[in-house]
Amino acid sequence: MTTDSATPPRRRRVDFKDFGILGGLLAIVVYLSLSTTTFLTSQNIVNLLDQAVVIGLLAVGATLCIVSGVFDLSSSATLAVSAIAGVFLTTQFGVVVGFILALAVGAILGTITGTMIVITRVNSFIGSLAISIIYRGVAIVLTGGAILSVTSDQLDAFRVWALPVLDGVSGGTILFAVTAVVLGLVLWGTTFGRRVYAVGGNEEAARLSGVRTPLIHISVFAINGVCAAAAGMVLASRAGSAQPSMGIGMELTAIAAVVIGGTSILGGAGAVWRTVVGVIILTVIGNGFNLLRWDTTYQQVVTGVLILVAVAADSWLSRRSRRSRG
């Protein structure tokens, strides 16, 4: 009989891990506000939000995967294939249908990735990496290595995700906000979300309690595929075109945002709102380097240090939690 008794202790009291990242973000914002005259201008805030969209969409999808105990390194390749399919389908059926079908392509690719990993029982990190190479090859085959563009009469409507639609805020920013809210509520307040936590916290215990763990893993890969497709369409919207090399390496930045936000790489712990904060931290850091005219080479160093600190903190908190339970 199916039950949710395997749900890990997610409804715990608020502690440092919950709000330490907020303090870090606040410190960065205060520093940049005092160091520059343009950081808090409305135009810069709008630009910050727009810069966070693509990585943010990839990161909120990756959050569900990591919380459930798996990694998906195929998301950027899924982004490329979905965007290519979306641009082509837009030329055939129009902007709205093309966008919807692009999301469907992302869901299908994510489902394929999850199914292959579940069936072969290969480590998700290696398995999704291999599948990402396959998807990149598919993208090249579909386009012949060329850039695929929408028609000139469709361009204005197609760029809806890149253009301001509400007080200067782009359609892509609104899409990201809606996606984050929906997935945050799904993970926090639904039976499916509790099962995602359960599988990530202790897959065997979840299975014994009646949770269909393979279906949970396939589902989170499918959701991640949809998020990747949405990110791909935002990128395509900005350029009016799609190509096989789109989004290379973005999956790693997305995972970095998830980890910096406090989601455990071991699974079973995390939240979408934390990931959003992680995305904003990375975006604000990049923006700060530009505003302060610092050498952006060191931005990678800062990002790497943040990831190392986040992983070390997660490991320390996990050990302390195990000792307190023991």
Architecture overview:
- The protein is mainly α.
- The chain is built from 14 helices and four strands.
- It has a single domain, classed as ABC transporter involved in vitamin B12 uptake, BtuC, CATH 1.10.3470.
- Helix 9 crosses helix 11.
- The longest helix has 29 residues.
- It is globular.
- It starts with 15 loop residues before the first helix and ends with a helix.
- Its main location: membrane.
- Keywords: Cell inner membrane, Cell membrane, Membrane, Transmembrane, Transmembrane helix, Transport.
Short note summarizing the structure:
The protein is mostly helical and 326 residues long. It is built from 14 helices and four strands. The protein has a two-stranded antiparallel ribbon.
